[in-house]
């Protein structure tokens, strides 16, 4: 490790104390998506105290922000992504209190160098757990002019390259005609019957799906009383696939199932997206390689091969626009299951505190590689541009 990287490694140890305090406070006061006012205030005040300029709200979202720090000579624009929303009833069972604090800590660490080129951003992105704040940030052009985007995620292993599932969230509304369920059933059109038929059709569709594609649905409305033919029935579905182009085909098949089920009983059906659509994560291998090298220089040897995550992340939408990574780092012994209270508690424990330091150091060192090594960024952009566009 060269002298300047040693400076950042040691500087991170100083910043870590403030970052951990922010992570602890946010973890102890969890907020749901688009309600993360305390988390945003905590992180932006910390950034402001270290000379960052704060734009809040951003992209029309009250709990989104962009923090900027300009270097001392021209160079790339590097964005660290901060998350800070919690899970209902669980708290920070996905470790977003650590994610936000790590990105802020890495950005502050880099800002301490008088040799800093370019510009550092921290992009605060709300509601990752529910509707994907990054999707809105992407659509509003926040990442135009950004050269690379970094974040980390706590997990069960150290994995620098991950892929994720593309996701569509569809709501189907079946409309029929109400009537007395016994005395005048002939005059009714049973929307619930159409909805149940729809579920049966999608279940048959599952038999021919690729092994890494999924259809999961629930009924959110099914009628008001057993003695009234339901005139309205509603279902919500998550559709997932490893690639956006495959998911688009599945989505059209599911919509056709809904239309056929409605027609079978002379009902009507409409559909809409009730959450933002996520694209698959495309980890940039050039940047992930730099992150892995820095992990090894920090003493981490147990690094897993590329992993296929079974969930969906809105960082995927960022990764189709700019070179991006979303590595996982091991929380404690790696035995805590995400989206549980145990995981949330681990993120507030001594292992969570130690993980935060590692994440700040690895992100900062990789950020420095991007800012100071034009060849690395050139390779990363060439890799991005060589991939077919998401359709």
Task: Explain how this protein is built.
It is a single chain. The chain has 391 residues and is α/β, with parallel strands linked by helices. The chain folds into two domains: 3-164 and 279-386, 3-Layer(aba) Sandwich (Aminopeptidase), CATH 3.40.630; 166-273, Alpha-Beta Plaits (2-Layer Sandwich). It is built from eleven helices and 14 strands. The chain has helices spanning 3-28, 37-49, 96-111, 133-139, 191-206, 244-264, 285-297, 315-319, 341-346, 350-372, 374-386, and strands at 53-55, 65-70, 73-82, 117-124, 148-150, 153-155, 162-163, 166-175, 214-221, 232-241, 268-273, 307-308, 324-325, 328-330. It has a six-stranded mixed beta sheet with strand order 1-2-4-3-5-13. A four-stranded antiparallel beta sheet has the order 9-10-8-11, with helices on one face. The chain has a two-stranded parallel ribbon with strand order 6-14. Helix 3 links the parallel strand 3 and strand 4. The two termini are 42 Å apart. 51% of the residues are buried. Residues 172-262 form the Peptidase M20 dimerisation domain. It comes from Desulfitobacterium chlororespirans DSM 11544.
Descriptive terms for the model:
11 helices; alpha/beta; Aminopeptidase; 2 domains; 4-stranded antiparallel sheet; Peptidase_M20_dimer; 391 residues; Alpha-Beta Plaits; 6-stranded mixed sheet; elongated
């Amino acid at each position: 490790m060269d002298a300047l990287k040693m400076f950042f490694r040691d500087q991170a140890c100083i910043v870590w104390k403030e970052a951990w305090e922010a992570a602890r406070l946010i973890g102890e006061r969890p907020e749901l998506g688009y309600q993360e006012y305390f988390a945003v205030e905590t992180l932006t005040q910390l950034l402001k105290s270290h000379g960052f300029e704060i734009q809040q709200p951003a992209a029309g979202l009250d709990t989104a922000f962009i923090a900027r720090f300009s270097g001392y000579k021209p160079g790339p624009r590097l964005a660290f992504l901060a998350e800070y929303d919690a899970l209902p009833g669980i708290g920070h069972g996905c470790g977003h209190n650590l994610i936000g604090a790590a990105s802020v800590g890495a950005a502050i660490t880099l800002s301490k160098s008088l040799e800093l080129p370019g510009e550092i951003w921290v992009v605060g992105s709300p509601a990752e757990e529910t509707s994907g704040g990054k999707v809105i940030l992407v659509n509003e052009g926040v990442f135009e002019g950004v050269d690379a985007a970094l974040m980390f995620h706590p997990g069960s292993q150290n994995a620098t390259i991950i892929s994720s599932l593309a996701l569509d969230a569809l709501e189907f509304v079946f409309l029929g005609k109400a009537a007395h369920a016994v005395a005048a059933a002939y005059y009714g059109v049973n929307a619930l019957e159409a909805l149940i038929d729809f579920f049966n059709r999608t279940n048959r569709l599952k038999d021919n799906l690729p092994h890494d594609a999924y259809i999961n649905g629930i009924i959110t409305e099914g009628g008001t009383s057993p003695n009234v033919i339901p005139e309205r029935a509603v279902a919500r579905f998550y559709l997932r696939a490893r690639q956006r182009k495959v998911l688009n085909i599945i989505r059209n098949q599911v919509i056709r199932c809904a239309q056929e089920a409605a027609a079978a009983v002379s009902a009507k059906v409409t559909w809409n997206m009730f959450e933002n659509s996520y694209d698959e994560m495309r980890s940039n291998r050039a940047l992930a390689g730099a992150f892995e090298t820095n992990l090894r220089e920090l003493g981490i040897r147990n690094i897993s091969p590329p992993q296929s995550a079974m969930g969906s992340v809105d960082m995927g939408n960022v990764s189709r626009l700019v070179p991006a990574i979303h590595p996982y780092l091991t929380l404690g012994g790696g035995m805590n299951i995400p989206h549980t209270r145990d995981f949330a508690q681990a993120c507030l424990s001594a292992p969570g505190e130690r993980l935060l330091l590692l994440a700040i150091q690895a992100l900062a060192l990789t950020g420095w590689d991007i800012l100071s090594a034009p060849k690395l960024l050139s390779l990363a952009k060439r890799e991005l541009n060589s991939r077919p566009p998401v359709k």
